[in-house]
Amino acid sequence: MAQPPPSPVPSRKAVLSYTAIITALLVGFWTRYSPGLGHSEHDLFKSFRANEYQCQAQGYTTEIISTDPLLILLEDFVSGEEARGIIETGEADLKTSGIQRPGSPYSTVTKDRTSSTFHLLFTTSESAPLPLTSPHLTCLLSRARDFMGPSLLSPHEDFGTPQLVRYAPGEHFDEHYDWYENLQPVPGRRGMWFNRVASFFVYLDDDSEREGGETWFPRIEVEDASHDEGEDGEGKGKGKWKRHEEGGVMFTPKRGRALFWVNLMANGTGDRRVIHAGLPLTRGVKSACNIWPRRFYVGGR
Ligand SMILES: O=C(O)CCC(=O)C(=O)O
Ligand SMILES: [Fe+2]
């Protein structure tokens, strides 16, 4: 007897295999070619936390300290509630930062400012990665994105992993750059590279006992405040910043205060003028948050 012709309807097994293959291809394509995490801070916020926490509008002020390189001082950039939430999110994971080596987040260190020779960078502070699922952090990141605007941080670029840092008395952070000497691979995205186009350094706590711990930019000069002491003797910086005796400008930590600066020059190379340090904390505690917006490059170093 003749065999019946093969059925034109694919078997159940075949349909399942096709579906599995197509899904794997789609996932692979997404992982490799999707542009950054994009609005991850908004998306994560919306999807996980919308019913639990609403971002509050935050009226902050700005003061341009330097236009070239661009360095801006922000006041009230984070609310007390957000600052407390961010500290709570990261503090259980704080670990001694220790000595950083090449390839680590701070791979570009020069202590003598004239050579680009690698020196070991020393920080005695503690640090912890901050998960993007923290609602307070996502509110801050979305404010940071709006502050930068899409020409400096395009919608498909992101903030990588923000970091909580904490200093105890005697702790400091040597002079360093936040940008990398070489482009870094974007984990999980073959062919995608990044560098830290700018930095936000946000002070998160207030400690009436605190002394020291200023953030110092030795190569950014401001007009000498001593020419204009004013009635309070605080000079033009009004207690927010002042000239360092060895040159450059240093900023006093205060909750809500933040520094924003641009790390990369127009041609994409790191700007050596934004070298900075965390001066030794002599009393109290200092907690802050690093946010490093990433510029993406496709196709290699
Ligand atoms: O502690 C400071 O004032 C600066 C810290 C810093 O620059 C960093 O963590 O990258
Ligand atoms: Fe830094």
TrEMBL record:
Record keyword Metal-binding present: yes
Keywords: Dioxygenase, Iron, Metal-binding, Oxidoreductase
Annotated ranges, domain Fe2OG dioxygenase: 158-295
GO molecular function: iron ion binding; L-ascorbic acid binding; procollagen-proline 4-dioxygenase activity
InterPro entries: Oxoglu/Fe-dep_dioxygenase_dom, P4HA-like, Pro_4_hyd_alph, Pro_4_hyd_alph_FE2OG_OXY
One annotated Gene Ontology cellular component of this protein: endoplasmic reticulum
Pfam families per record: 2OG-FeII_Oxy_3 (PF13640)
Cofactor(s) of this protein: L-ascorbate
Region (Disordered): 222-243
Keyword 4Fe-4S tagged: no
Designated name of the protein: Fe2OG dioxygenase domain-containing protein
Organism per entry: Amylocarpus encephaloides
Taxonomy of the source species: Eukaryota, Fungi, Dikarya, Ascomycota, Pezizomycotina
